[in-house]
């Protein structure tokens, strides 16, 4: 009812000139930079802002750039590994908070929101310091994928609290009686968890896995501080390309990353919708 | 639930199984590094260029020297400016979306959220190409400049000086940094305001207009006080991340327009001052926490009323 009323004059502010102007200004402003990156990725020129005709060469160049390809594989490996680990830790953390009443429970629960409040740069330098002082003496090896372990640790550290929060939101809807019923019917802790609680969490698991994957894939600041010269991720590689030589190859690489993120988000939303309907 | 509460948690192996991995990970990789950083901020560098913990407050005193203090104040000032610009644009955008027809609403929302899905680095790179000397904005200005030049010749007036268009240097100053922060944060301002506007009962607005108040008065006296929670949350989501932004001043500001995060990053580069960097990090963190708790207190007080 109120929705219909909103269309009535003179209250309908979407018909007023100022909101309308601001909306289109904002939309154009938000899209222009991204669209111009995509357009100039097809530019047949050494400079990014001077148009010299249409070409796909930048994409082939980006594809055959060994550094870029390596960084891309690194990014996907790190994102996959940190998603799996964050998911396991996040499930444990959410289940722990829901199932048990223990000393320091509220404290732990509120501490989990720390990664939201602590500035990324502070987390980045603290991990840099920690890895340097604690892991500095231990050689983890520079061969793939051992060189990625530190970045994976860093990513899990900021991803799993988010996973835990998403799963907590779902698990709090679950009735404790069902778990007690499972125990009464003779299930042990392991079976009750895997056969009773876990299936209920399925939509939250998918949502949080997607969240962790995109958080890890997109992260620049924390990765920037924890990556070494032989362990570079895609955003860090693009950053260093921007530092040294800005050519349309960077635009092509960026466009690939844009397409991947949008596809991942859309795919994740589709999967989630399907799960929710089931 | 009651039975479960009473059982002896610490004797259950399941409790230890579920608690040790997440709590342990959190303690080791989240809290330990922060504690180390905190301890480092009281350390000093010895003759062998190693950092030793001496519990000195020297680093904090250095951090409050004019060069760093100025950057810190500029960080707060320009974050506030970016937040204010976001608030003005975001309010009108949210107003437009929430009053547009129901079949268009989801589409407009997606339009606003979509850019947020792309990587931050790429968005900032996009802004930097836009603002560059051969970028889109300068091209547009050049286009109008040339048109005015033609008009000048026709009318015989002198409006613009010079024979050629000189591109404006828009990059590498605080203006570019503020533009970047507005660009990155705008969706975070629009969405909370939109969600509280959408829940607003519009009969209050109708009553105000019926009783003879102008639109301006209705918006300022009726609408804005009622959507204050959304505005507060939007300010929070815009201001706090802006304070610690590293990438935006790094790519758009350059050496002339630095924010506190860039200073911190430089202290952790090759051959520089880690204890000072640690002290600056904690000052940034304390400021962030102060604003965070301020926001929470404000929310709690508002809810009580």
What portion of residues of chain B belong to β-strands? under 5%
Task: Please tell me how large the radius of gyration of chain B is.
Answer: 26 Å
Whole-number mean pLDDT of chain B: 87
Oligomerization category of the chains in this entry: heterodimer
Rg calculated over all Cα atoms of chain A = 24 Å
CATH hierarchy, class of the largest domain in chain A: Mainly Alpha
Count of alpha/pi helices of chain A: 14
Shape of chain B: globular
Stated plainly, the CATH topology of the domain at 65-132 and 170-304 in chain B is called MetI-like fold
Structure classification of chain B: mainly alpha
- Which percent range fits the helix content of chain B? over 70%
CATH-level-2 architecture of the domain at 65-132 and 170-304 in chain B: Orthogonal Bundle
- Number of folding domains of chain A? 2
Runs of chain B in which pLDDT lies below 50 for 5 or more consecutive residues are: none
Q: What is the fold named in CATH at topology level of the largest domain in chain A? A: MetI-like fold
Concise overview:
The complex is a heterodimer of chains A (278) and B (305). Chain A is mainly alpha-helical.
3D structure, described in words:
The complex is a heterodimer of chains A (278) and B (305). Chain A is built from 14 helices and no strands. Chain A is mostly helical. In chain A, helix 4 runs parallel beside helix 8 and helix 4 packs across helix 13. The longest helix of chain A is centred in the N-terminal third of the chain and has 34 residues, at 66-99. Chain B has 305 residues and is mostly helical. In chain B, helix 4 runs antiparallel to helix 11. The longest helix of chain B is centred in the first third of the chain and has 34 residues, at 66-99. The two termini of chain B are 34 Å apart. The chains are: A mainly alpha (278), B mainly alpha (305). At the A-B interface, helix 1, helix 2, helix 4, helix 6 and helix 7 of A face helix 1, helix 2, helix 4, helix 5 and helix 6 of B.
